[in-house]
Amino acid sequence: MSPTLRVGVVGVGLMGADHAHRLAARIAGASLAAVADPDVERAADLAEELGGVTVHADPLDLVAADDVDAVLLASPGAVHEEQLLACIGRGLPVLCEKPLTMDSASSLRVIEAERAGGRPLVQVGFMRRFDPEYAHLKAVLDSGRMGRTLLLHQTHRNLSVPNPAFRSEMIVRDSLVHEVDCARWLLGEEIVSIQVLGPRPTRHALAGVLDPQVAIFQMASGAVVTNEVFVNSRTGYEVRVEAVGEDGSAVIGRPSSGVYTTSSDPDGGAGAWGGPIDPDYRVRFERAYDLEVQAWVDACRRGERVGPTSWDGYASTVVCTAGMESLTSGRAVDVDLVAG
Ligand code: ISE
User: Fold this and answer.
1) Atom of ligand 1 nearest to the CA of 281
2) Ligand 1 centroid from CA 101, angstroms
3) pLDDT tens digit string along 193-235?
4) Where does the Gfo/Idh/MocA-like oxidoreductase N-terminal domain lie (predicted)?
């Protein structure tokens, strides 16, 4: 193993700041060396809080810095291509939050650059693959003990999304993209077509935004995946999967702890039962993020690469692009991937 990996974090919004704290406090074999954000004040505040961290206004300066061995990109998807190409150009391993890039042509350019460099360097931040429950489900499906998998039913709810930029397309690109990756990974095959339906929108959605959405994936084997994505559910962060096989079914993501019973009626009427619901992904997938970043750091120190690849990032971008087309037409759209 090489010495401590000095990591630079690009983008210190919600997710980047969360990763910066993780790297500074919980990840073995790594240190947080630098942060970069166009909002320098925000980056400087974080650096001061964590101590001993260099601040860059320009992410490309961070990528070029001598004291950075690896980069975690938590910047907006629209700037990923340039930043990824800079990391690959310097031979730096990079953990890139989803989406890899915004369209298939730019994702392909990243794949090409990585291949030309002769060494796989990109891990895409599909953290659910590291979640213990997801990993368990994957092992059950792969074991064949439920026979062939016929159906997946995936549910993905956020409490609310106040950001006015979060329009219908973004629900596909930013939220549904996780279901795209999970379907491909859990079933070990590609999605061949996608249809996205917009039922009656909730009154909590911004005007003109289709929320919830229901997406149907046809898999190469003929298996079907149904997905509900509802980002203004007013319920909480609920992410569940039910897999239906020929010889059994399995569910993950049901609340399994903190269940309580209580009498809600002071006059002694019937009570209620329940428990807390996670407020957001940082809480629900905290363990998955820890395991993901630790696996990345360990692999970097061994000179290897693990987890979702740039191909997985490309494939999910292509499926989401087809999904956005279906959102407009209402029809199923074929997914055309280049030959791997
Ligand atoms: C966010 O970017 C995520 O990745 C979350 O997992 C997802 O639930 C949310 O809808 C996205 O905005």
Assistant:
1) 6
2) 16
3) 999 999 999 999 999 999 999 999 999 999 999 999 999 999 8
4) 5-125
Question: Which tokens belong to 120?
Answer: 């796989």
- Atom of ligand 1 lying closest to residue 170 CA: 12
Give the residue among 40, 48, 50, 44 at the shortest CA–CA distance from 18: 50
pTM for the model: 0.94
How many residues in the chain?
340
pLDDT tens sequence across 92-134: 999 999 999 999 999 999 999 999 999 999 999 999 999 999 9
Q: How far is the CA of 221 from the centre of ligand 1 (A)?
A: 28
Question: Taking each helix axis from N to C terminus, what angle separates 132-143 and 286-302, rounded to the nearest 10 degrees?
Answer: 80
